[in-house]
Structure formats: structure tokens, C-alpha cells
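pasting for ref
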Amino acid sequence: MGLILTILGAISQGLIWGIMVIGLYITFRILDFADLTVDGSLALGGSVSAILILNGVNPILCLLIASLAGIVAGCVTGFLHIKLKIPGILAGILTMTALYSINIRIMGKANIPLLGKKTIFTCINELFKSFNSGSQIVSSIAVGLLTCVVIILSLYWFFGTEIGYAIRATGNNKNMVRALGINAGIMKIIALALSNGLIAFSGSLVAQSHGYADINMGTGALVCGLASIIIGETFMKKDINFIIKLFFVVLGSVLYRTIIAVALQVGMSPSDLKLFSAIIVASALALPKFLKKRGGVMC
């Protein structure tokens, strides 16, 4: 029974963190831009959401405001890279570093508990209780699944628009995009804003789910996100539909969280998680090449 609850908890967290992974997928795979703002923008979403909830703001409105804060962070990274000609990796590092101090300023301290405060999960949990089936895990899975589906469908529509196609083309061949008269710099800024908006949205959900916001809650998010993307991609076939790719990315997040949760359940020390995560990423990177040599079809 304990293992089943552990797996269900991992699924709920995998869905919530899956939104962050989708945001990371936009920059790393679609835009082909190594954005390191992730750790800072995830904590930004959590800190903004936490301070607003403490002041009695509706938790759903907190999600939207946190997303706007993430969009601003993404625009800053884009501005540093496009307008000031700072290399992309360094631009992300600069924004991430600045966000650490900004997040401290927003919260006023390193940690804000949300015990007893109204969050989107407590609201859903109360709804389930009215049907005599209340459970924090059930409410987390319900919120995470619904949110992921809505975001994936919205992104599928967005990347089918002219701007969406321009962003995808910028990631594939920015020289061709410029030849067609499209401002590749603006497309990068839009993609970075969208990506970090989703990441901050995820950070807000994580804070509301855990019941607290912490200045270090985004630490390691980049590695977790990349691991989730790589794990999800091992199940993808060539020329798969874009919307299916996004679902597989979320699946990768769920599988990653499940692997970590099971490892802790069987007795792994929390201090070994970083090493274990590195092994998972390395294995996921090597698996497609191994399968290709063995005649597999995964890519």
C-alpha cells in the first residue's frame, strides 16, 4: 500500500512539474536555445504565488500573476541575448542569478509556509470531500492532469499559427527565417517569454501543492527537466505529431518522478539523488543510440 501511495504521489508531482518540462522543451528543442533561466523563474513563480496567497489573493489568479512574472523574466533573458548581444547561456545565467535576489525581496525571507491558507489544491480537495472521496493526492492528480491537457492543447493551437510556425522555423534555421523577412530576435523573445511563463506557472503550482515556497525550490530544475525530456523522447518515433510529443514530454516527467520516488522508497539516501539523476540522464541519452545499433526505431 505504501508503494502504491508513493507512485500515485510521484504521478501527481510528475504532472505538476511536467508543465515546467513543457516550458523547457520549447526553448531546448523547438527554439534550440540553451536557456538557464529555469531555476530562477521556477522559484519566481513560487515566491510570487506564495506572497499573494498570504495576502488573500485568489489562488487561480496567483497562477496567472506568477506566469506574468515568468514572462517578464523570459523577456529579460531575451533582451540580454538579442539586444545586448550576450551569449544565450550567459544571458540565462545572469537572469537566474538576478532572480535569486529578486525572489528574496519578494518573499522577504528564504521560506514562506502556506499551512492553513487557501490554495487551488485545498479547493479541489474540498470538492472531492463533498463526494466522500477526498484525497490530497487525488486533487493533485486532477489539477495536474487537467492543467497539462489544457496547456498542451493551447500550445498545439499556438504553434499552428503564423507566429508559432515562425518560432519553430527560427529554431530550425534562423538564417532562412531572416531571408523571409521575419525578425528572428523577436521570435526568440516570444519563445523565451512563453517558456518561462509556463515554468513560473509550474513553480506556482509546486508551491501551492507543497504548502510552502522556498528560495531554493528551483535548484536542480534544469537537470530534472532535461532528464524528463530525454526519458520522454526515448519513447518517441520519428515524425510523430507535435501534440503527441508534448504528451510524451509530460510522460517523461511522470516517469522521472516515479523512478526517484521508488528509489527513495527502497532506501536510497536523499544525498545520492543528484548522482542518481545524472545516471538517469546519461542512461536516457545513451539508450536511443544503443537501440539504433540493435535495430530499434526509437529516436
